[in-house]
Amino acid sequence: IYPFLIRHVPGFAMFQAPSRWLLWTVFGLSVLAGIGTLAWGRGKWIFFWSRLIAAGGAGMIVVSLVMARFIEIDSRVLGVLVRAFVTLGVLVSGSALLTLARPEREESTSQVYWRAVVLIFIAADLIWAGSGLNPTVNAAFYDPRPAPEGRGYWCADYEYEVRYEYFLRFDDFTHVVRQLDAYRRSGLANMNVLDGAELLNNFDPLITARLRAYYDLIEGDLARSDALLRAAGVDYVYCRFPPPGWTGENPPFVRSEPSPDAWLVGGAVWVSGPAEAREALTNGFEPSAEVILEGVPEGVGENDGIPDPGTVTISRRDPAHIVLSVNAETPAWLVTAYASYPGWEARLNGEPVELYRANLAFTAVRVPAGISQVELVYRPQAFAIGVAISAAAMLGWIVMIALATSRSRRLPTRT
Length: 415
Hints:
Strand content: 15-25%
Number of strands: 15
């Protein structure tokens, strides 16, 4: 069923792991087990089959242990098989013995004891089944650790190899448990956030199509991607091989000079859309000299600046509020390595200004000559809409409760 749903139901592919849908199976089995307890009684045939099942479970245990002693097979495979059959034999025999031991009188003291034993048996089964599925770690696992300076980038093929072939292997879910310290140091699965380390990519399901296209440009030719990595503020990469000029014998490979998060350029290349922006990025693009913008110039020339128009200092950088101090010698473009995402707004010296989409996936602001302050603030409309919906729902509940209370007070009381 799952392949059909992932191909034909819109949005279904975003849920990924099909094992999550086993929750429906578990829920159905739980309901059936609850229904089955209602038919759990005593009788001739129930006793007959219970005795046979108890004997069958005991035989399963004996055969499994004998097989483990006399059959030559891979020890790991055999160990798993033996444990599985012994466990199944214990559960089958235990269930049958509990059925045979059930007291006849429903309201007797022995019935209470019998129910307690049943609950203990089921609890032991659940604990055994769940043990190891969600391993715990020491709290020190989450303590911050030293991290490389600047922003990093994981090459897609290398990330897949490290993530799924070395740590999160599908043939052995316990492999990562034996490598917890190395897994923590890798920074995968967004653990880089614990160390305050920045990554251009990583395990993020909410990637815009433009940022994904930018990743594809980098992956398309890593040997010529230095300009793209600089425009994205990347200082080190986790890849099989380093880009030309980057240092290091093993990942991460480090750029010789740090990449800025924000800078000024005097030149602008205007394109009509994302397709033209992608082409411009692969055609001799130099982020320190020009910025690729989409739309109509609106009175601004394509290349109307000087080679070194000024300096930028980041005075505040929070996840939703960034403040940049600009000292421009001439009107210029303030280009940032911060991804363009719905909800970001720009203010120049306290006044709202247009926030341009730059270099396909990032942002830029037009700044005048002289000293000025630019603020980037994240204020998504979805948050305001969510607050309004929640407030309306809460108000509706208050009105409904008030009406119900008022109505109950007006109803006559019977005597």
